[in-house]
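pasting for the record
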Amino acid sequence: MPKWISIDRAIHKYEVKEEDLCLWAETKAITASFTETTLIIDEESLQKFLRWHETFRTEDYIYTLEQLCNNQAEICKLYLEVIELQKQDLQHKTKTIELLKKQQAAIIEQYKLSQETIKKTTEILSKVEKGWLEKLWSLISK
């Protein structure tokens, strides 16, 4: 059963750097986990790693670091591609918004013109009706 210790305790007890512990946890060289916002480490796996690290220091460790760097570089390339796609999408959406604003302005102008047409048509019809009724009344009342 793992005996979990905090990263701070591991730093002080084993005199290692926090960056190294995080790197070892990320490369799965040691068993680690997160509780809420704190990294905790399996003390036994850390002890085994430190013993191994003293015995086989350079070649395997450098190879592991090289692999991690290569993986990180690939991830960065993917992020750049995603950012470029998001940039293109944003440009497309900006153009779409500009077109929609132009359409909205045209629709508002068309609405104003139709309201004005309705008002003038109503006025004309009102005058025509009054004139027609007046003529009819004058014919009847004669």
